[in-house]
Amino acid sequence: MNINATLWIQWIPFAILAWVTAKFIWPPIAKALDERAAKIAEGLASADKAKAELANANKAVESQLAQTRTETTKLIGDAEKRAAALVEEAKKRAEEEAAKIIAQAKAEADQQVVRAREALREQVAVLAVKGAEQILQKEVNAGVHAELLTRLKQEL
After folding, report:
1. Tens digits of per-residue pLDDT, 118-128?
2. What is the DSSP letter of 140?
């Protein structure tokens, strides 16, 4: 056997195998590899798109959180102002009520002073009549001398 003939004989099945592989086996494999590469590229594009959407969503969330914080701060400030206003109003009402109570107490005290003066006048008038009785050594008739007693009360 000649080595050249063996190489040519081995070369024929190899060429047939290469042709069959190139014609029937390689195109489906290449197609599958291309489809897989397209799916991977699509997946990477989707991942990039999802990252971008996530970044946008995070920005939106941060923006909304900042807005919510601002609104919350405003609401708290408004509530504090309202509470201060309510406290001031309550203080004002309490002061007005205290002033009314003090005015009523003063009016009542004035009335009691007037009543006490009237009572003292009555007592002084009675004492004056008794003193006059003793001085004159006779009875003074209150009914007869009512006008005199009234003038005496007013003078006191």
Report:
1. 888 788 777 77
2. P
